[in-house]
Amino acid sequence: MNGINVAIVGATGLVGQTFLKVLEERNFPIKELYCFASSRSAGKTIEFKGKTYVVEELTEQSFDREIDIALFSAGGGISKKFAPIAASKGVRVVDNSSAWRMEAEIPLIVPEVNPHVLSHNDYIISNPNCSTIQSVVPLKVLHEAFGIKRIVYSTYQAVSGSGVKGLHDLEAGTTEFYPYPIVGNCLPHIDVFLDNGYTKEEVKMIEETKKILGDQNIKITATTVRVPVKYGHSVSMNLEFEREFELEEVYRLLQSVDGLVVHGHENSLDYPMPIDVEGHNEVHVGRIRRDFSVDSGLNLWVVADNIRKGAATNTVQIAELLLDYL
């Protein structure tokens, strides 16, 4: 392949900038690169592989040119408006917002988990929620082996999940974005509250997990918490299986998963932390132990860089899968 034409929508944002880093690191076969953003960012310049690119304002005419794949990270409203426009012109869109995730006809992809649901007919593909992505990477093999009956998620999510505004509140000690101080604090509140008392983030994790694992019968609950960490989401997962298991078999299965780093088999002090995963693309799992309070219960601690695997890296991995359809 001589290269394909790629567009970045939201090129000046935190995830958009990381798209470019990951594309370069993975030597994605780019022939022409187009960078789009809002009118406020139009005219700015971006460096990529030694070349300078001028950011263009995203308009309804932006895709009236030869573009093969567009990576979107500009918010749900932008994705709802512009992804169908791009798709109608033959562009395959990988969208990082929540706009399309729960649409039945839109594939929701984690390449280590469900690449098989992609088809030649898919022109809008959704990237899951950051915490969901890192959670389902270890869950797939365990579900196939033992049948997951129930999941209890508790997340500890970095402020970069809120973008530059969240980072600013942590670094400057302000409450310009969050309703309460994040410095030295934990906020059990990510996204908006729903009528049932859950936040939208919690419902995203519940519903997306079922869709990605292809099983609507798993019982799932979640509590999502923002913590004063810059990069790296952590998820405590309590699992209850349909069938009995041995811990050695759990370790063996997890060690077989591409992109998953397993900790703690030989040393209990070997567990993953956000400070260690920042800037890395892999998902890390540790604190693997039985839950003795229920039959066939297991606890896991899963950590990943939310801007990398939780957003940009997973999106680029999906784009790599799409190369087979171009």
UniProtKB/TrEMBL annotation:
SUPFAM superfamilies: Glyceraldehyde-3-phosphate dehydrogenase-like, C-terminal domain, NAD(P)-binding Rossmann-fold domains
Stretches assigned to the Semialdehyde dehydrogenase NAD-binding domain: 5-121
Catalytic activity, EC: 1.2.1.11
Residues that, per the record, bind substrate: 157, 226
Entry's Gene Ontology molecular function annotations: aspartate-semialdehyde dehydrogenase activity; NAD binding; NADP binding; protein dimerization activity
Pfam short name (any one): Semialdhyde_dh
Protein's pathway: Amino-acid biosynthesis; L-lysine biosynthesis via DAP pathway; (S)-tetrahydrodipicolinate from L-aspartate: step 2/4; Amino-acid biosynthesis; L-threonine biosynthesis; L-threonine from L-aspartate: step 2/5; Amino-acid biosynthesis; L-methionine biosynthesis via de novo pathway; L-homoserine from L-aspartate: step 2/3
Record-annotated active site: 130, 233
SMART domains given in the database record: Semialdhyde_dh
Superkingdom of source: Bacteria
Catalytic activity: L-aspartate 4-semialdehyde + phosphate + NADP(+) = 4-phospho-L-aspartate + NADPH + H(+)
One GO term of the biological process aspect: isoleucine biosynthetic process
Keywords assigned by UniProt, alphabetized: Amino-acid biosynthesis, Diaminopimelate biosynthesis, Lysine biosynthesis, Methionine biosynthesis, NADP, Oxidoreductase, Threonine biosynthesis
InterPro entries per the UniProt record, alphabetical: Asp_semialdehyde_DH, Asp_semialdehyde_DH_beta, NAD(P)-bd_dom_sf, Semialdehyde_DH_NAD-bd, Semialdhyde_DH_dimer_dom
Residues that bind phosphate: 101
Family from the record: Belongs to the aspartate-semialdehyde dehydrogenase family.
Function: Catalyzes the NADPH-dependent formation of L-aspartate-semialdehyde (L-ASA) by the reductive dephosphorylation of L-aspartyl-4-phosphate.
Assembly and interaction partners: Homodimer.
UniProt name for this protein: Aspartate-semialdehyde dehydrogenase
Record lineage: Bacteria, Bacillati, Bacillota, Erysipelotrichia, Erysipelotrichales
